[in-house]
Amino acid sequence: MSNAWRSEGKTRSLSEVYGSIPIHSGPGFWKNLRAFIGPGFMVAVGYMDPGNWATDLAGGSQFGYTLLSVIFISSLFAIVLQHLALKLGVSTGRDLAQACGEAFSKPVAIFLWILCELAIVACDLAEVIGSALALNLLFDIPILYGILITILDVFLILYFQHRGFRVLESIVMSLLAVISLCFGYELLLSQPDIGSVVKGLVPQASIFQDSSQLYVAIGILGATVMPHNLYLHSSIVQTRAYAHTEADKTKAVKFATIDSTLSLGLAFFINAGILILAASAFHINGMPHVADIRDAYQLLDPVLGSKWASALFAIALLASGQNATLTGTLAGQIVMEGFIDLKLAPWLRRLITRMLAILPAFFITWIWGDSKVGELLVFSQVILSMQLSFAVIPLVWFTSDKAKMGKFVNPVWLTTLSWLISAVILGLNAYLLLQIFGLA
C-alpha cells in the first residue's frame, strides 16, 4: 500500500444523489450540532437491529447480567471506530470503500468487497428474519409468508430514497424513538436489580472459560460493531455541505463525533435494555432457555404482568427491522461503487441483496421449521464478527497514516487504542475458530 492517495478525492455518490445539506456557518454550538445530527443515528440503527435482539436475548436469559460487559465494551469499540470512519470521510473526501479501492491492488480490493458483501447479506438476513418474526407475532402471518413479504421493503425504501436524505434521517430517528419508548416502558416493568446490572458491566473470567458464553459474546460483538457501518458512516457524513478548509473540517469532525457518540449511546441503552430485560424477566425466574424471540414475546405479558409488554416488544422489533433495512441499502450502494466502481440501479442492487438474504432464511425455515430461526439470527451475527477485522484494520491503517490524513492523523494514543481494539476483535474471532475446530 502506498503512503499517498493515488488520485484526488472522488465525487461523493450520496451527495450526488441527495445533494449536500447546508450547515450553520457561525459559531453557535446548538445550531451546528443540529445541522450535523443525523448520520450518527443512521449508523446507530445497525447497532440495534434484530440480530442484536437474538444475541442479547440469548445472553440475558442464559447468563443473566454477565454479558452486559460485552455490550458495554463493544459500544466503546464502536464509538472509537465510528469516529475514525467519519474522520476519514471528512478529512479526505473518501469513504472507506473508496479509500480501499485506491490504496490496494485490484485483487485485494475485490476480496475485501466480497467480504463486505457477505457482511451486508448476513446483516440483511437478520433484518428479513426479524421483520418476518414481528409480522408473525403481531398479525399471525406465517414466518415463510413474512419472509416473502419483506421483498416489499425494496420498493418502500426506494420511495423514501427519492424524498431526500433529511427525510431518510427523520424516518430513522422517528423509528428509533419508538424503539426507545417501548424498551423504556418494559424496563420499568421488569424492575431489574441495579446492583447486578452494575456488576454485569465488569468483565467476568467465565466469558472466556465457557465456550457457550464466548460464542454468544462474539455474536454480541458482531451485532454491535458492524463492518458495513464503517463504510456507511465514512460516506454519509459527507452529505453535510461544510467548506473544505482545515478549520471547517475540524468543526465537521467535532460535531459529527458528538452526533455519533450520542447516537451510539442510545444504541447501548437499547442493547443493554434487551439483555437486562431477558435477565430480569427470564434468567432470574428460572427460564434460562428463552433465547428465541417468539418465546420471549409469549412470556413477557405473564412474567411482567402487563397486557402491553408483548405487543410493544413486537412493535419495537418491526421498527428495528425496517430501520436497519434502510441503512443496509445505502451501505450496499457505497461498497459496490467504492471498491469496484460498479454502479447498479438502486432497485436492482437492493433486490439482489434482499434475495440473497431471503433464500437461506426461506429454505432453512421451510426444511427445518420455525425453530431454527433464532439460531440463524445468532449465527448471522457471528458471521458479521468474522468479517469485522477486514474493515477495521484498513480503517485504522489509513487514519494512522500522516501522508494520507495530514493534520487529522490519529494521535499516538488513539493509534495505540485503535490497534488494541483491532487485536481484541481479531484475537476473539481466532479463538472462536479454534474452539469450533476443537483446537482450543
Automatic annotation (TrEMBL):
The gene is mntH. The chain crosses the membrane at residues 63-86, 141-160, 167-188, 214-232, 264-284, 308-331, 351-369, 381-400, 412-434. This is Divalent metal cation transporter MntH. H(+)-stimulated, divalent metal cation uptake system. GO terms for molecular function: cadmium ion transmembrane transporter activity; manganese ion transmembrane transporter activity; metal ion binding; symporter activity. Belongs to the NRAMP family. It comes from the Bacteria. It is a multi-pass membrane protein. Pfam families: Nramp. It is found in: Cell membrane; Membrane. Its main location: membrane.
